[in-house]
Amino acid sequence: MASIFAHGLVGATLGKLYRNTAARQVAISHSSDTSQSILGKRFWILLLFLPMMPDLDVIGFAFGIPYGHVFGHRGITHGLPFALFSGWLCLRLFYRDIPAFSKQGLQLIALFSLATASHGLLDALTTGGHGIAFFSPFENGRYFLPWRIIQVSPIGIAAFFSEWGLRVIISEAIVVGVPCLLIWMWSSLWGK
Q: How far is CA 35 from CA 21, 70, 87, in A?
């Protein structure tokens, strides 16, 4: 798996892109800043939490759920159907006043779904572990992307603070950090 730092950075970057898109839409329509009102603390907390959330499945190890099981690590919670459900659920729980089939509702569902799905995509770039069950629960095959360029992160805090953890941070800084930094810079300079 990628580390929580990489997952959180991707979520924050998606939030930055959405914020600039929402600001542009308000400026073009010359309307009141209604779309900016959703960009408060809960918005940012969701975008930091959702990319990390799929790894809650590691709790299954304590209950004897095997890695390759549909509810095992990198199983259903890493799948695209789960990501789509998570996006819809976040809208219903945290933005009840926004209709799901409105333009803004669909944008938020897409954003929250993409934030959740980013977890499996990053994990599919790692050098270890089992593949990702992208289509679970409909199909439990495990897949990696053709480019496995992120050092797999150790499971557990103690193991992370080691030479292995340092290799993971360096790998993620190059593969995830640099692109996110470039997106933030581009978004800040030309996204308004």
A: 10, 38, 18
Question: Degrees (nearest 5) of the Cα angle 156, 157, 163?
Answer: 100
pTM: 0.90
Q: What is the spatial distance between Cα 153 and Cα 119, in angstroms, rounded to a whole number? A: 13
Q: Which of 31, 32, 46 is CA-nearest to residue 93?
A: 46
Ordered per-residue pLDDT tens for the chain, 192 residues? 788 999 999 999 999 999 888 766 655 554 544 455 788 999 999 999 999 999 999 999 999 999 999 999 999 999 999 999 999 999 999 999 999 999 999 999 999 999 999 999 999 999 988 899 999 999 999 999 999 999 888 777 777 778 888 888 999 999 999 999 999 999 888 765
Q: CB neighbours of 5 closer than 8 A, spacing ≥ 6?
A: 169, 172
Q: Which two structure tokens, joined as six digits, stand for 148?
A: 């496995």
In this structure, which long-range contacts are made by residues 82-85, counting pairs with CB atoms below 8 Å and at least 24 apart in sequence? 82/54, 82/116, 82/136, 83/113, 83/114, 83/116, 83/117, 83/120, 84/109, 84/113, 84/117
DSSP string of 169-180? HHHHIIIIIHHH
Is residue 81 within 8 A of residue 54, CB to CB? The reply is no
